[in-house]
Structure formats: C-alpha cells, structure tokens
Amino acid sequence: MHVQEWLETVPAVAVYALVGLVIGLESLGIPLPGEIILVSSALLASQQGHIDPVVLGASATAGAIIGDSIGYAIGRKGGRPLLAWLGKKFPKHFSEGHIATAERSFEKWGMWAVFFGRFVALLRIFAGPLAGVLRMPYWKFAIANVLGGIVWAGGTTAVIYYVGIVAESWLKRFSWLGLVAAVLVGLTSMLVLKRRAKKAGQTLEATEA
User: Fold this and answer.
1) Which DSSP symbol is given to 33?
2) CA 121 → CA 1, 23, 118, 174, distances in Å?
C-alpha cells in the first residue's frame, strides 16, 4: 500500500507517534526511512484537517533530538567496538569506507557535521553514535543536535505542508511526486557517499598494505 494511503487509515495520534518513533530510531543509528515518513505525513497534513502540522513538526523534532542523544550516549559508551559490531550487523550502512567518510566529515566540520548531517540520509544515521565514539564535547553536540533537529524536521514539515496548501488540487492528483523527490534526493546523497566511502576504503587498504 502507498505510504500516504496507509497513513490516512490511522488516527492522528498514531501518525504523530509513528513519525517521532521512526525518526528517533533512524537518528539513533537504525537504518529506517524517516524522511519518507515525514514527507508523507506533512503532505497528508496539508490535505487532511485532522492532522496538526505544528504537532507533527514537534513530534518529528523531538524524535530527531532524542534519537540522536541516545545514539550519542550509546556511541560514547560502546566506542570503536560498537562500530565494528554495527559493521557486521549492517555492512551496507556501517562499512569501513562509510565510517571513514563520516569520520573525515567530523574532523573537518566538527559540530557542524552533526547539524548538516541531518540533511544527508546516511550521515543522519551516523551522526549521533559517531559523535559519541569520537568523544565530541557534549555541549557542542547538544547545540548542533537541537538546532539541526529543529531546522531539518520542523523545516521539512513546514515546507512540504505549505507547498501542499498552495498546490492542494495539483498534489491530490500527483502526491506521489513529493515522495519520488524525497527518494531521489536520498538516493543521490547515498550514491555520492558510497563513492566517497569506496575511495576512502581503497585509501585505507593502500595505507594498510
């Protein structure tokens, strides 16, 4: 079933809870389609009066901030062995190449890697746990985490909602385009990161050799 069609069948409270939960788990480090769920829910809010966009945005923001905070705590306690374990469980997402790419981003941008990581599918999964593993000072992480969560989750909800209001009749016929756009953005960012991760992995292999 279409994601948006399925969301239409559940109560508003369940939509808020689902959005917060999925985004929270994704931010914690579990690969889930948080952005797709958020975009679908925001589109639904623009077409269905029973879903409050403010509550939706607040739920998404809370899930993003809390999930990242838990991921940070887990990463700080688990350290490098945690990344090795995740690499075995989720090799496509936590490969050595991907971790190396994320580490370079943290070394170059510091707390801004946490902030801007919200807008990149793969980094959104890495940000919290990796910040903890790399022992980023918590106050820096907290600032970037809160600001990033508000701008990404709240901003995405607001933009998609108002686009839906302005072009409601058009979106009713072609609402799937919003999801397609979100998927394309996510896939593009993942392909770019994959290419960089592959290069990083080759560099690491050459260094070890």
Assistant:
1) -
2) 23, 11, 7, 24
Helices then strands (H, E): number in the chain? 11, 0
Interatomic CA distance for residues 14 and 37, integer angstroms = 13
pLDDT tens digit sequence for 91-142: 665 666 666 776 777 777 778 888 887 887 777 787 888 888 888 888 989 9
131, 106 Cβ separation under 8 angstroms: yes
Nearest to 178 by CA among 53, 39, 62, 77: 39
Residue with tokens 């807008």: 119
Contact present, 120 and 189 (Cβ < 8 Å):
yes
Residues 6+ apart with CB under 8 A from 83: 94, 99, 129, 130, 133
Closest CA to 145 of 61, 21, 59: 61
Please report where in the chains the tokens 């980094």 appear, as a residue. Answer: 123
Model pTM score? 0.70
Residue showing tokens 């945005």: 57
Longest dimension (CA), the chain: 61
Both tokens of 41, joined, read 């829910």
Could you identify the residue written with the tokens 């909602």?
161
Assigned token pair, 179: 């999801």
Amino acid letter, 195: R
For the chain, give the number of residues: 209
Separation between Cα atoms, residue 6 and residue 168, nearest integer Å: 19
